[in-house]
Design brief:
The chain has helices at about 15-25, 30-40, 45-55, 65-75, 75-100, 135-145, 150-155, 160-170, 180-195, and strands at about 5-10, 30, 105-110, 125-130, 170-175. The chain is α/β, with parallel strands linked by helices and about 200 residues long.
Length: about 200
C-alpha cells in the first residue's frame, strides 16, 4: 500500500526546501500550491471568479492578475473560502489521479500550506509539519517575495498558528536555523517507510 503523506507548514517555514530533500531520497512530490496556481487559470475557474468579482481581475492576457487576486482573498475570509471551494476539489482530484502512477512506491508526499485549514488531514496517513517561528518566517517571506510586513501578515492570519499545527502533526521538522534539517528528514523518511512493517 502506498501511503499518502501530507507536508505542511505556515508561509515561510521552508516547505519547498524540505520537499526537495524528500525528493532526493526518491519520494514522489506533489506540489498542491503549484497545481492551485495552474488551476487558477483554467477556464472554469476564471469564468467563476470573473462572474463573482468582475472582469477587472483579468489581465490583458486574459489570466487572473495574481496581485489583485491576492489582495482580494487574503483580506477577506469569505472571498478566500470561495476561491478555495473552486480550486481545492480540482487539486485533490488531480492528486488522487497522480497517486495512481506511484502504486509501487512506499509513500508519496503532498506539499500544501493549508492541509489543516482546508480540513484535508483525514485524507493522509501521516502529516509532517515544518515549524519555524513567525518572526523568522516574516523576514524570509519579505526578503523572498519583496513584499512588506502587512501583506505577509494578511496571509498569516488565514493560517492556523504554529502551536495548533504542531499539536496536529504526526512528525515535526524544526527549521529555525538552530538544528540541521537533513538529518530530521532522513529520520522521518525511515519511520514512514517502516510503518507498513509495524516498526514505527
Amino acid at each position: 500500500m502506498t501511503l499518502k503523506i501530507g507536508l505542511t507548514g505556515n508561509i515561510g517555514s521552508g516547505k519547498s526546501i524540505v520537499s526537495e530533500m524528500f525528493k532526493v531520497l526518491g519520494v514522489p512530490i506533489y506540489s498542491a500550491d503549484e497545481k492551485a496556481k495552474h488551476f487558477l487559470n483554467s477556464e472554469e475557474v476564471k469564468i467563476a471568479i470573473a462572474n463573482k468579482f468582475g472582469n477587472e481581475l483579468l489581465s490583458e492576457n486574459n489570466e487572473i492578475d495574481k496581485d489583485r487576486f491576492a489582495k482580494l482573498i487574503f483580506n477577506n475570509k469569505k472571498n478566500l473560502d470561495y476561491a478555495n471551494s473552486l480550486i481545492h476539489p480540482l487539486v485533490m482530484a488531480d492528486f488522487e489521479k497522480w497517486c495512481k502512477e506511484f502504486s509501487e512506491q512506499n509513500y508519496v508526499l503532498m506539499e500544501s500550506a493549508i492541509i489543516f485549514e482546508s480540513h484535508l488531514e483525514k485524507l493522509f496517513d501521516k502529516i509532517v509539519v515544518i515549524y519555524c517561528p513567525e518572526e523568522l518566517r516574516l523576514k524570509r517571506v519579505m526578503g523572498r517575495d519583496k513584499v512588506d510586513e502587512e501583506r505577509v501578515l494578511a496571509r498569516i492570519k488565514n493560517q492556523l498558528s504554529d502551536n495548533e499545527k504542531n499539536k496536529l502533526a504526526d512528525f515535526i521538522i524544526q527549521n529555525d536555523d538552530s538544528i540541521l534539517v537533513i538529518p530530521q528528514v532522513i529520520e522521518i523518511d525511515k519511520k514512514i517507510k517502516n510503518i507498513n512493517n509495524h516498526v514505527l
